[in-house]
Specification:
alpha/beta; Helix Hairpins; Pyruvate Kinase, Chain: A, domain 1; 5-stranded mixed sheet; 5 strands
Length: 295
């Protein structure tokens, strides 16, 4: 009977776990849909910024002294700022681990062989802070609030500070590592360069308009548009990372609930078999005792 009691305890424990994972799945699903709607709404704005960039891009002279600071390609990456976007909590499968693995594997190619000494980390998310701090990397910034509920104002201030440091030539380039959202079950660990700025190239003829008239002036629009585009694209990455996190956790909790259900079925079958065997043994003992009394 001790074996039956152990099985009952396991079934009870797994049932409790199943209730927890199911509840977490529903919470993550609600957060995912809300974050996804925010991302879709913001993409309307970011796409409009991109459209304007496509219109202005053919007229930009990247060698213009007033604009060169935004477009100058570094001869060498002696100082790199890497913004790492992760989550604060776990239970989202390989969401954070895959991004950290991508950074470690691709950094030598992306940033050069001396990347460990030359890269300064800005970690937004507790998991990124823990991962890189344990491995002795230089963390210039630790922020665990911005990834909980991304807001444009806070992300804009963060990127403005980083942009000023880049323009002051503290860094040769600024990169962002994040999980690019594809669908709830699939996020792509990505490293993107955000500075120096690259003008988007468009193959659509509707954007090719060399005789555009700019108001107030072309230079003014470009000076305003480039910093705005940097902040806009960074905030979009922040939103994508948040959507990916909730999608990964929702998928992970769904799988955990399914596994708990299957395990419960197997344990109940095992319990019923063991219980039937125990009943059969008891019947045999009773029958044997009765036969012994007759004899």
């Amino acid at each position: 009977m001790s074996g039956l009691k152990e099985i009952r305890n396991r079934i009870s424990s797994i049932t409790s776990t199943q209730k927890i994972t199911s509840a977490m799945k529903m919470v993550s699903a609600a957060k995912f849909h809300k974050a996804h709607e925010s991302l879709l709404r913001y993409k309307t704005y970011s796409n409009k910024v991109l459209d304007i960039l496509h219109q202005v891009a053919p007229t930009i002279n990247e060698n213009d002294p007033s604009l060169r600071k935004w477009f100058a390609e570094p001869s060498a990456l002696n100082s790199v700022a890497l913004v790492v976007l992760t989550s604060n909590s776990s239970m989202c499968a390989g969401f954070n681990q895959n991004l950290a693995k991508t950074i470690i594997e691709n950094a030598p190619t992306e940033f050069g062989e001396n990347w460990k000494a030359n890269t300064k980390f800005y970690c937004l998310g507790k998991k990124g802070v823990d991962f890189f701090k344990k491995r002795g990397f230089t963390l210039l910034s630790e922020n665990t609030e911005m990834v909980i509920k991304p807001e444009y104002n806070s992300s804009s201030e963060f990127m403005q500070t980083l942009t000023q440091e880049y323009l002051a030539q503290k860094y040769d380039a600024v990169y962002v590592a994040f999980n690019e959202f594809k669908n709830p079950a699939f996020q792509v660990p990505t490293i993107k360069r955000i500075l120096p700025f690259s003008t988007p190239k468009s193959t659509e003829n509707k954007y090719v308009a060399p005789n555009l008239i700019f108001e107030p002036t072309k230079d003014y629009i470009i000076e305003v548009l480039i910093p705005l585009a940097v902040k806009t694209f960074f905030y979009e990455m922040l939103l994508e990372n948040a959507v990916g996190e909730h999608g990964a956790r929702m998928t992970s909790m769904h799988q955990a609930t399914e596994n708990a259900t299957e395990l419960n079925k197997a344990l109940k079958l095992k319990y019923n078999k063991a219980r039937q065997a125990a009943i059969t043994n008891e019947i045999l003992e009773i029958v044997s005792g009765a036969e012994a009394l007759k004899g």
